[in-house]
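Exercise 3.2. Students should predict the tertiary structure of the chain below and write it as structure tokens, then compare their answer with the key that follows.

Predict this chain's 3D structure.
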Amino acid sequence: MGNRRSRVRMLQPLLRAHNISRAELAHTLGVSHQTVANWCTGRVQPPVAQLKLLAGYFEELGADHAYVTALVVSFLEAQGLDRSLLVNDERLRVPRAGADGNAGPILVISWDQARGRYYGSLAGTCVSMLEHLGYRCLLADCCGQHGTKRYYARIAIEMGCSGVLLVGIPGEPPDSDGELSSYVDEFAKANIPVGVVSGEQRGRDVMPGTILVAWDLSDVLGRMVDTLAQLGHTKIGAVMPYSGMYMRYELFEAALRRHGLEPGESSCAWPSEGDDVLGDIAPVIRENSGIVTTPSGLEPLVSECYASGLAWPDDISIITTTGSSDDLPQQGAQRFTCVKTPLAPIGHAATQMLSRLIKHGSTPDSERVLVLGEREMSVVNLEGGSVAAPRLV
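Answer key:
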């Protein structure tokens, strides 16, 4: 009995390796916590039907196939099966479960997961909603690296994923649209439906086999600039990190001009072409009374304000974007003023549209694009936040 139990005590190390609790596994498989505890100690072996679900669950998490196979075999041996009957048996290769019980998982690729910023929260929302629909999901962080993004694309194709969801994944400059299109084309060749979730300009064409859920960037930047201009700011700058922000700078300029304002020489800190390093912020905050930024730009902006001895909103007004106010850093008791785009409606629309595309293979053109605009956005923390009328000097 001791040897048999030692053979099946492979489950707990697997849980530990993937940071999964016994309670979480029990909930996923629809069994009690005590049942999973018995499996971990070898006191009780899972029935064959549960072994299939167990193996599929861990392989979707990326567990080593050989280890998962050994785990299954150890449980079967503990129930008296002859190991020789299982050698080279292809039936041990458990199909990954999807919404129909047989399809491959959905690969969700995002970035900045570690810091839990905007796209990290949005990706998590989408995963939760897809799992609620019955899909298995794999969440991958490309860390903003286009090479990593392409690596995950190859993995998705090799695994036979039933779908891919790209959350905030830009194309690579200088031809962002062309690079993203060539990347998505690889999925199209493999007949893998793709969902794209990102900030866009209204009217963008959607690639074949793809659905798009977006929030209109011109409306986001317009609301930020409007808020500052209505408070009386005539010198408005921007801090926009990362090389994917070129289009946003053009939209920022257009928003200024709607108020009769012209960008100054030091109106914006943004990366040089082909560079991900943010430009000099000091002139921007020195020459402007109001600043618009993104969540990823907020941290370097705040650091520069501290270094320059500027406090907000007394010395300078700051407004940013977010999907949830909880995603933004808070300085003391004061929250940052932000234009809030609705995470839940975005995630719900993206998952529903992608699910329809997976199930039916195609969708009408009228159901392939959803762009959320100003009506779905709100300005939060306007009072007692990080914006105020400019200080008279």
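Discussion points: The longest helix spans residues 343-360. Confidence is low (pLDDT under 50) at residues 1-7, 85-98.
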